[in-house]
Amino acid sequence: MRALELIAFDGPDALRPTDAPEPRADADGIVVDVRAIGINYPDLLMTQGSYQVKPPVPFVPGSEIAGVVSEAPEGSGWKVGDRVAAFVWSGGYAERVYVPLNAVFPLPDNMDFRTGAATIINYHTVHFALSRRGGLRTGESLLVLGAAGGIGSAAVQVGKGLGAHVIGGVATEAQVEAAREAGADEVLVLSEGFAGAVREMTGGRGVDVVLDPLGDWLFGEAIRALAPEGRILVVGFAAGAIPELRVNRLLLKNVSAVGVAWGAFLDIDQELMVRASRSIADMYASGALRPLVGQHFTFEGIPDALHQLSRGEIRGKAVVLLGDEEG
Predict the structure, then answer these.
(1) CATH for the stretch 2-118+292-321
(2) Helix, strand, or coil here: 278?
(3) Does the predicted model carry a pTM greater than 0.85?
(4) Under CATH, what is the fold of the domain 122-263?
């Protein structure tokens, strides 16, 4: 079976083609024939050895797949031929993948494989962040940092689907159109002191929720942009440094800083992914969700896709296509 194996924690260039053993289904999981693979930031970090999950090398990275069930045990709830999307901690850069039962969900009939692969980590993470961790309510305001990227564009759309007024924060003027295309009601370039601009946009009040996948200096400025009882959702640190917080700022403003670790929560709430997939499917059917697949790559092009992601060159989401990806 064709796969890409990481031989050292030296980044995407350490990925090598290999003939991997065939996975087998068991009482806890199924096997999926892969049709599309999502490219994401955690996979990039994993190739560098800087992600919280660090399997010993060599191993096959990759965590987002969409495809067709090829083997399923009796009583699993799945059958051969079912169209699915799934999350795995590793093993996704392969033609066939073993998937635990709590990490797979049905692909809607109106969604192709490439779109399915683009709606796993990003959309499930932001749905968990906004609906469960942030308690975003209809009519509230939401500021999304990095709104032109994969996580950010997903957050804009899920926020709209949940009934929020969404401000998209981007790094440059060149990214403004991508945030608007994602569905942001207003777009803001995140320059120094952007909290003042956010308050002007909200009549002086600030926003109810900030979704922050960037960290670094933007985190502190985003706290200043919060309204009373606002919540900032800590999703990641793609901008570089992990920020530090003086908690008296939370106390003085009556605001909350909330951690978001979706993957780690899958083992705590076994039904989390299936429940969220229903909500995401409904948003997709209504037109609220329009995953932005900015680039497509071949299986052999995965290292190049990861390099482009590291340089911030991927608009929206990059997807790798295998076989009958349109099914």
Answers:
(1) 3.90.180.10
(2) helix
(3) yes
(4) Rossmann fold (3.40.50)
